[in-house]
Amino acid sequence: MLNKLKFDININKLWDFFILSSLIVALYYYSFRYPLKINDSDTSPVYVDTPPILQYGKYVIILIFIVLFLTMVIKFKIRANVRKFRTWEIFLAVFLLIIPMISFLFVKNPYLLQVGIFFSILVIFYLFPFSKINVNKINKYILLFILASIAVEIIQLFNFFAFERLPALGYHNSISVRFGSLWDDPNSFALIIPMLIVFVYVGKFNNLMKYLLIIALLFMLLLTQSLTGIATFIVSLPVVMFILFVFTKHEKFLKALKLNITIYVVCLFLFFIFVYPTEFIQKFLSLKQGSISGHLEGLDAFINTGLLDYIGLNPRGILAETGYINLLLNFGIFYLFAYVFIGLSSIYRIIYIIKNNVDKQGLELYYGLLFFLVAYLISLVNLPVEEIFPISLIYVLSIVLSYSKNSIEH
């Protein structure tokens, strides 16, 4: 019992240190007028290519955490327990981890490594599952992330207007200046915002704080100028409301769905009457034509391939801006099915967590996870999010947290 207590305390301290130090470093980094703008020099004139040490450094950090975890497991003699899970769940996790690893060994393409590596966390979880989680602590971290993101966004906007300092994805003398807050990556940051908005809306905040945070997050979503992120948010709202109503039969979800559709119809009408004809929107859409064409090129990759590609025997790396096409042509139809199915099964578990814990605290986490998983699977239609860090990591963590139904109040 004492060993188990020490193990939990050590993990909590390690995680606290990791979260807080990451936020402090990020805030310090963005307080400079001219920080490093690292990603891909082909994407924006103010980008430089990410140094290899940083490209792979995040995976080294994850590996260190896994090694520390396993070290504690050995030290405190914690036994593996796979009886809690069904055989197909364990098989899928191992399959999703191993196939990209094998492909990477033969092809040496970083994309292949990035897709599968975080499923190692899921495999370890299946071996050493938690008995409870501290929902309040996770909610505290999410709120801390929201506040830090708003602070960084304000710093980025101040630097832009005061010193003409562009964010990492921006062009001089252009309306195409895209802000990605803490991550400085507008597409991936836009995909986490639906989770954060729902988290705040469901959370136990006073009305003033709730609406201020939601307005700030919506404004930040617009500043990403991510059409995929904005469209994903718009689509995921009615989809989630419909799913929740079908599985829970709660009338509030049906009312929310009807209200959502009504608002969309009115906004769509107003948009095409008053906004779409404006010079700003036309210029904005013209700037997006290159990006749209790039996404459509993925269809050529899908059509002009052979049988070996469709069964995953000819992995080559990123072939399209569409995640589903990349997963299919690099790893095969069975891998694509497994990747989506494990996400859908997690959505199913989270829905029943919500259904069976309506009056309990901490549900904002699960509503947020539900919206994230739905948004993630939708966004794969138009973005290779399966290899975008940290979105791909959060996908795996959401799957892990979907198993925590018996400990929502802990």
UniProtKB/TrEMBL annotation:
<dbReference type="InterPro" id="IPR051533">
    <property type="entry name" value="WaaL-like"/>
</dbReference>
<keyword id="KW-0812">Transmembrane</keyword>
<feature type="transmembrane region" description="Helical">
    <location>
        <begin position="259"/>
        <end position="277"/>
    </location>
</feature>
<feature type="transmembrane region" description="Helical">
    <location>
        <begin position="333"/>
        <end position="353"/>
    </location>
</feature>
<keyword id="KW-0472">Membrane</keyword>
<feature type="transmembrane region" description="Helical">
    <location>
        <begin position="56"/>
        <end position="76"/>
    </location>
</feature>
<keyword id="KW-1133">Transmembrane helix</keyword>
<feature type="transmembrane region" description="Helical">
    <location>
        <begin position="14"/>
        <end position="32"/>
    </location>
</feature>
<feature type="transmembrane region" description="Helical">
    <location>
        <begin position="208"/>
        <end position="224"/>
    </location>
</feature>
<protein>
    <recommendedName>
        <fullName>Oligosaccharide repeat unit polymerase</fullName>
    </recommendedName>
</protein>
<feature type="transmembrane region" description="Helical">
    <location>
        <begin position="88"/>
        <end position="106"/>
    </location>
</feature>
<feature type="transmembrane region" description="Helical">
    <location>
        <begin position="186"/>
        <end position="203"/>
    </location>
</feature>
<feature type="transmembrane region" description="Helical">
    <location>
        <begin position="141"/>
        <end position="163"/>
    </location>
</feature>
<feature type="transmembrane region" description="Helical">
    <location>
        <begin position="112"/>
        <end position="129"/>
    </location>
</feature>
<feature type="transmembrane region" description="Helical">
    <location>
        <begin position="365"/>
        <end position="382"/>
    </location>
</feature>
<feature type="transmembrane region" description="Helical">
    <location>
        <begin position="230"/>
        <end position="247"/>
    </location>
</feature>
<feature type="transmembrane region" description="Helical">
    <location>
        <begin position="388"/>
        <end position="404"/>
    </location>
</feature>
